[in-house]
């Protein structure tokens, strides 16, 4: 991958309570790997990337801590979940319906639910971009991935696999997300 300054080179999830769920961790690693594969993440007014991002939940808020590629803290953004409440509620509701429909509904209903889920996911991702716009410029795919990680940590004890069925991926990852982070950050 060509060297780009305005990108995320590593993502870490900071949890209040450690969970031991290998499937959730595998899904989380897949989302992280997809973000790292190609993203745009630019701190407004700075050209100091690539960046490490640490996501954490702090009560009714979530924090996005940004560090340089060596781990030196640069800035933290604390956002309230309040503006996300409606869209997250809709997202979780449609994801639950989508999960149920994968085993109980006809293909047309499943397709309609999938389209609705994507639309709500895009709406939430645009809201995240909007809320960060004065501080961070990021592309839609990066916002989608970050939203997925944030909502999975905030709402669901089991993580991503209980929030929404992850899309089927072609091929498999034969290395860990930490290997990917180290390779992409140039370590």
Please give a structural write-up.
It is a single chain. The chain is an alpha+beta fold and about 190 residues long. The chain has one domain (about 10-185). It is built from 6 helices and 6 strands, in the order E-H-E-E-E-E-H-H-E-H-H-H. The strands form 2 sheets. Strands 1-3-4-5 form a 4-stranded mixed β-sheet. Strands 2-6 form a two-stranded antiparallel ribbon. Helix 3 crosses helix 4 (about 140-155). Residues about 160-185 have low confidence and may be disordered.
What attributes characterize this protein structure?
48% helix; four-stranded mixed β-sheet; disordered C terminus; two-stranded antiparallel ribbon; 187 residues; single chain; alpha+beta; elongated
List the helices and strands and how they pair.
Elements: E1 8-14, H1 22-37, E2 41-43, E3 51-58, E4 61-68, E5 73-80, H2 85-104, H3 107-132, E6 136-138, H4 140-155, H5 160-163, H6 177-184
Parallel strand pairs: 1-3
Antiparallel strand pairs: 2-6, 3-4, 4-5
């Amino acid at each position: 991958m060509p060297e780009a300054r305005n990108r995320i080179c590593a993502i870490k999830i900071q949890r209040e309570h450690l969970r031991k769920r290998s499937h959730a961790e595998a899904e989380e690693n897949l989302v992280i790997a997809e973000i790292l594969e190609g993203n745009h993440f630019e701190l407004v007014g700075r050209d100091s990337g690539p960046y490490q991002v640490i996501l954490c939940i702090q009560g009714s808020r979530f924090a996005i801590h940004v560090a340089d590629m060596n781990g030196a803290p640069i800035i933290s953004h604390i956002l309230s979940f309040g503006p996300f409440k409606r869209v997250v509620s809709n997202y979780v509701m449609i994801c639950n319906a989508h999960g149920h429909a994968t085993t109980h509904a006809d293909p047309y209903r499943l397709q309609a639910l999938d389209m609705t889920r994507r639309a709500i996911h895009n709406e939430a991702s645009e809201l995240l971009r909007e809320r960060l716009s004065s501080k961070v410029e990021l592309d839609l795919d990066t916002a989608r991935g970050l939203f997925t990680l944030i909502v999975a940590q905030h709402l669901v004890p089991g993580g991503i696999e209980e929030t929404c069925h992850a899309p089927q991926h072609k091929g498999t990852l034969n290395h860990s997300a930490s290997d990917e982070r180290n390779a992409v950050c140039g370590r």
